[in-house]
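User: Assemble these into one structure.

Assistant: Restating your components, then the assembled model:
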Amino acid sequence: MIEGLLTGLSAAISPFNLIMVFIGCFLGTFIGMLPGLGPMSIIAIMIPIAIQIGDPASALILLSGVYYGAIFGGSTSSILINAPGVAGTVASSFDGYPMARAGQAGKALTIAAICSFAGGTIGAILLMIFAPVLSAVAKLFWSAEYFALMVLGLTAIAAFAGKGKIVKALCMTIFGIMLATVGESALHNAARFTMGIMDLQSGIYFVTLVMGLFALPEALFLVLDKRRSKAMANNNKIENLRITKGEAKEIAPVVGRQSLVGFFVGVLPGAGATMASFLGYGIERNLAPANEREMFGKGSIRGLAAPETANNAACTGSFVPMLTLGIPGSGTTAILLGALVALSITPGPRLMENQPEVFWAVIISMYVGNMVLLILNLPLIPYIAKLLTVPRHYLIPFVIFFSLIGAYIGQNNATELLIMIGLGCLATLLRFGGFPLPPLIIGFILGGMLEDNLGRAMRKAGGMEFIWERPMTLGILALALALLIYPVLRDRKNSRER
Amino acid sequence: MPFKPNTMPLGLAALGILFSTLLLLLPYSDLPEKDAHGWRDFAWKDTARLIGLAVCYALLLRPLGFIPSTTLFIVLSSRVLGEINWFRSLSTGLIASGLIWYLVDVVLGIYLVPLPMLAGGLP
């Protein structure tokens, strides 16, 4: 391993590869900030350039840099304008955006940068240690366990179930999963709920939904409620970048825990950064003391640190099945896998033996990439956060415009825009009714994978027997039920005591 | 029990009915939303105008092309929200739409029809 590390180190810190990391991180951050352009589309765009480079290690280093950069860029738009362009950064907007609205945009971005760095770096160390072992564990997971894992991911909605909102949160989750059933199902090739509209054949596009639920209603609320936009204008000071010692102490254990959670969730094929961020958010809310728990969803630094650490650690973790088994751990690594094949590299158990310079250079480039991201982003934070000082009569049209164009460039049809506007109006009304919207998006994101794995598991077992026939599935489902019920009972007990 | 295309939707419908009924039957314990402080205090007209402009933008994006429709959207929506300087709103709209078109179309290679004559729409 030491020999491999040295080989990787010499390859990764060569001037050319350092430039590749730098370019990748910069481009990824910049483009990732544009809603609608997630890491998948950015990496897909960069593949022809990477192939032109020729050297597989340099190409993969460039693409990995783009990947980390895009995740960080996505967090920036989540925190500043509540427009997460990537599913993995949706959870960052739950507390990051309230922090930005409360005049702590600089601090929120600093926490995001540091937690992303820590999560990515700890993830890279774990990758180095556990890659061979974890690939063996991941092989044991069957669709039944994946189904149970998706249900476990859904328990993150309990975080929004405070103050008697559990039934509303559950209704929104079901509605989200229902929206995920629109279009052709992966298992049957049968169109559902398309109402004869061809554009709905492939389902509702994630960016359309997320822009319609988060960015557009936010802009509409700023117009509707003039007092709110005045408060935003007063709170757009960005000098407050520093994290106090007390805050650092508060987020340190979160970073430690969520690096582990994120990494291990990322290793499981199909789970990825999104699942890790939701799970991390839910876990931290459950672990937080009662007074801090109240702050979740209103600008808690723990609530921001948890998904930011977990999604970056999961990005690193998702490289394990890709490099060691040749199985993509997420949509993004599936595209990276395609790039590897195009570069005449066969990922799998033999990659470590046959092309150690590629395997270890990618791992070392993760340390370098995370370092470059931190160096690149920390000095830029005051400038990035200045976005909030744009006057209201330009900020709102631009938020609406970016939401619209984000949905348009992904699908290239106007129907998508009309669906988005309709969803935006619906989301505005739901907010008036006190319905929490994050459970809807969690349900939508996990819904497709949930149905897919449930279908496979039921087909294989001939029914629902797989739940009690497989102890691991039963165990995960029992844990999910406990995670959903426990916070509700605890909140009820606390409110009775008061 | 076979898994059919309607298995999941039927299960979801059952759960939806259950939770909606619970919502109606259980005592209402939500705290009122901070934003809900009286319907008359809200700027409904401006919001409706902006939604109308967004719908027009969605319908005109293809026939009119990206640059003219985006400029028009930014100019009109900024004026709805209180911008009074035509020159400033027009120059912001033109520069922003031109820059974004260049970034998306030329740099990233995602095709966006820039002008109406290239869209096959207006002559």
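The first helix of chain B runs from residue 7 to 25.
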